[in-house]
Specification:
Structural class: alpha+beta
Number of helices: 4
CATH topology of the domain at 6-60 and 90-147: Metallo-beta-lactamase, Chain A
Number of strands: 5
Distance between the termini: 28 Å
Largest sheet: 5 strands, mixed
Shape: globular
CATH class of the domain at 6-60 and 90-147: Alpha Beta
CATH superfamily of the domain at 6-60 and 90-147: Ribonuclease Z/Hydroxyacylglutathione hydrolase-like
Order of helices and strands: HEEHEEHEH
Strand order of the largest sheet: 1-2-3-4-5
CATH architecture of the domain at 6-60 and 90-147: 4-Layer Sandwich
Strand content: 25-35%
Helix content: 10-25%
Length: 164
């Protein structure tokens, strides 16, 4: 089967892949890219791999800032047994193989955000993915846990051959 180039992607395919990638943060962390583990699946002719960047400790209210406070607190109490001040949230990133392209959705926290995050490059290596093999990076938004992994400590690009 031939693989279309990313630039030839059609609207329906883009929407399907976007919807799949958008769902990643809501996936349960257990069994889905926790630590060095990964999850891989084929979606048509696209290989989706979910890689962990570690975890973040966040104020519990940061999880759903637009939710009605009483409902949100009741949900946390019901699911966690009490209302925690902070929660530990796993951070996962999608790696898409489409033909000759290896596309990373966001590139993680790097090593300067929280000590429990910044594991993405290690997990790429553990999964035998050379950072130089990544051809494209798509940023969903500019929060630290999505873009601070762009540069290494020496100022060079962590994914040197990618277009951003």
């Amino acid at each position: 089967m031939t693989h279309p180039k990313l630039t030839d992607i059609h609207r329906r395919r883009f929407l399907a892949l976007s919807a799949s990638a958008a769902a990643i943060p809501s996936l349960p962390s257990t069994g889905w890219a926790v630590g060095s583990e990964t999850y891989s699946s084929m979606i048509g002719d696209v290989e989706l791999t979910v890689l962990s960047d570690g975890s973040l400790t966040l104020p519990s209210g940061a999880l759903a800032p637009a939710a009605p406070r009483e409902e949100f607190e009741a949900l946390l109490t019901r699911t966690m047994g009490s209302l925690p001040e902070t929660v530990e949230a796993g951070t996962n990133h999608a790696l898409l193989r489409i033909g000759d392209d290896l596309i990373l959705i966001d590139n993680g926290s790097g090593n300067k955000y929280q000590p429990t995050a910044g594991r993405l490059l290690d997990n790429l290596s553990l999964n035998e993915v050379d950072p130089a093999a990544v051809t494209k990076v798509v940023f969903t938004h500019a929060h630290p846990d999505h873009i601070w992994g762009t540069l290494l400590d020496d100022g060079s690009l962590a994914l040197p051959n990618a277009t951003y």
